[in-house]
Design a protein that fits this description.
Layout (H helix, E strand, L loop, with lengths): L5 E3 H8 L3 H9 L6 E2 L5 E4 L1 H14 L4 H8 L10 H30 L38 H6 L1
């Protein structure tokens, strides 16, 4: 017995563990698309099980809906993704994940020296931001994130 090429939203919810409302949300975000049958019911491709599973995993890794949508738009509609398709996405996500890992490792290693310090005024403190000099690099704890203070600020701390 051959599998049907399309499934109902309830079947998709059952297979992915997502609620029907979550599937509708993902549809509204362009992550999956449904056709309507003669009774007006949504019908999804079986490959949408894999797409939504990918969405769930990508969200757990901290990717935004926009980032996920960008990658899924590269996949062909109407057929299951191939190994080549998934490898292409994997390479793209790997770069972002490697950057996050590097950033988190640097943050963890820098915080080791801050635990229990409480002074925020030591010359070596990565949180101290005399005169808000770090604003030129953007928002957040810039020195802790890897940016270096200007030479004059380093010598004044």
């Amino acid at each position: 017995m051959a599998l049907a090429t399309t499934i109902s939203i309830g079947q998709l919810a059952n297979r992915t563990g997502l609620s029907v409302s979550a599937i509708r949300y993902h549809e509204s975000q362009g992550l999956v698309s449904a056709e309507r049958n003669s009774g007006g019911q949504r019908r999804f491709l079986r490959s949408d099980i894999r797409r939504l599973s990918f969405v769930l995993i990508a969200q757990q890794f901290g990717f935004t809906i926009e980032q996920i949508r960008t990658e899924l738009q590269k996949l062909p509609n109407g057929r299951n993704p191939t190994v080549k398709d998934w490898n292409k996405i994997s390479r793209s996500f790997r770069k972002v994940l490697d950057e996050k890992i590097e950033s988190l490792t640097r943050l963890r290693d820098n915080l080791d020296g801050c635990i229990g310090c409480g002074c925020l005024s030591l010359k070596k403190c990565r949180l101290y931001n005399r005169g808000d000099g770090a604003k030129v690099y953007g928002t957040g704890p810039r020195y802790l994130m890897g940016d270096r203070p200007p030479v004059e600020e380093e010598s004044q701390n």
